[in-house]
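I hope you will forgive my troubling you with a question about protein structure. You will find the record immediately after this paragraph.
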Amino acid sequence: MNKNILGALALSALIFSCQEKEEESESMKGWTYPETAKVDAADTLFGRVIPDPFRWLEDDRSKETAAWVKAQNEVTFGYLNQIPYREQLKDRLSELWNYEKLSAPTKKGDFTYYYKNDGLQNQYVVYRKDENDNEEVFLDPNTFSEDGTTSLGDLSFTEDGTLAAYAISEGGSDWRKVIIMNAISKEIIEDTLVDIKFSGLSWKGNEGFFYSSYDKPEGSELSAKTDQHKLYFHKLGTPQSEDAVIYGATPAQKRRYVGGNVSKDGNFLFISGSISTSGNELSVVDLTIVSDYSNIAQHIKPMAVGFEQDAYVVTTKGNDFYIATNLNAPNKRLVKATISKPSMKDWVDVIPETEHVLSISKGGGFFFAQYMVDALSQVKQFDYSGKLIREIELPGLGTASGFSAKEEDEVVYYSFTNYVIPSNIYALNPETGTSELYWQPSINYNPEDYVSEQVFYTSKDGTKIPMLITHKKGLELNGKNPTMLYGYGGFNVSLTPSFSVANVVWMEQGGVYAVPNLRGGGEYGKKWHNAGTKMQKQNVFDDFISAANYLIENNYTSSDFLAIRGGSNGGLLVGACMTQEPDLFQVALPAVGVLDMIRYHTFTAGAGWAYDYGTAEDSEEMLDYLLGYSPVHNVKDGVAYPATLITTGDHDDRVVPAHSFKFAAHLQEKHAGESPVMIRIEVNAGHGAGTPISKTIEQFADIFGFTLFNMGITKLN
């Protein structure tokens, strides 16, 4: 079949063929890839023509793309169905996942609210108890849709707890609907708000709330570009069409991400605006002098100007603002400002920067400084003057999170977990510093059977990188252990230890789970982040490849038993490493990946990722750099790539599925090896948030089954 269909043909005329290829080598594999049509599409940048033969797959709502998705899934699931222990993995995942899960409680008005899942419910249910300890369901997202794919997003209460607004996502989309209710009676009181994206919900008394969104894009809402975020105020009793635009409405205020938060006393509105995922400006509005929200712009006072720093308000006390920032402090510090002197030149240290990265929370009249020490938690308690009260004694080495409560609360809750210990909830007395176990899951699993150890290895340029390696105790280091190497390495995101049922099932099969803290992340502050951005992005891939070599050199595994996995920016990591070092890995598992580095910024809010990646339009030098590692553009003819299972959702409107579609098409066309390269496309699913438990279990069963099967493992332990 001639795959070249000239650009003169409209996309609607593309003919998709599922005919079997006649080559003997294809038929001997036991599967046949669908034929993917090619078009004469290209980008011309700096005088260079960059072909894009599978561009038609960017039209994610066309009949042709739908047919391609269906055909790919038929091949992929046909292959997965032949894995002898696929159902056994699913059953074990379901068995282990079936335990009650609980969140820390929070007081809202006369009720105490918490999230709970009885085991295998697709979505967590919001419960509440009254002052007499009577329990009832407040919101059950499992009733939002028949298949469990409509999930609950942000849930926000007024300070008195009488009103609530909550966001829902349908099919995994980042676009939200917002529903407003009387929290006491649970009655819906207004029309549903629609077309809201990347937004919190922050109440101003009981008048209404602030939220953020983009103008509804023209064309496909899944992939159309959205890069002017706006802050709105919704006044109760008025239609959404009359909502006042607070910020982001003019070209001078054009921002890709905007947020607004009201202080607990309702006196101040803090506005954050940014043009990328790193760095933001910060402003304040004194709401006590504002009577008309449509004219709020004249009352905005700048606090942090420009985008060279990250800054957010932790809390207020009277006219004092407490701000966490990395301004002149790559590892962050806590500072204080006032309404009379809000500018960053007047900020005063409360908790100065240290050698460890800081995140800050407050509760019970104190600040809790959560430090990352080699990706492990250390927590210190301070008063509002910045005086150290004590270091909080944690249950062990791992990740502690939470420490958030109202100023008047007498108990502050936090959770603790690591790769071996399931998340437990502790109740901390802020006056004494003592903790008591509040809740512990009952799970069919013994943490004492496993060990998690931190090592430091050397990357290509000599940088020391930490990595946590977790496995069963007594594991023989014989180079034959199935190993899952997981990474991210970007956007200042820190990978800290956390428990996963799926990882337990992997380790029950003698598997090793290894997580390095790559550059590009936030584990060592802003410098660590910047060392993995733009024209230093290769550092991230080198760190990951060096982690793989460490595991092989120390006999944890070998290339025959090594899989690499990552999602989103981590999907880019996997795609880049498998195309740069195809012989190093047996299996590659890129999930919802950013894989076309030449066009990523042309979809949805992708242009906001330019701080980390740069764009192909920045300069010829940047274009060359991106072309040097872009997975879609580095699949070579005649190369044997690892067994590959690409995973994505057909409703992903953050990293659009075209990235994964095009990568799969290139691999299937050019891959010379006998290993399968397939794509698993979850229908009616998005980037991952709110994915039903049932779908999550199926995905892990397929991923683990595919991985073990392609390592030559014929039966489970």
In short: The first helix runs from residue 24 to 27. Residues 327-333+351-433 form one domain. DSSP finds eleven helices and 42 strands in the chain. The longest strand covers residues 450-458.
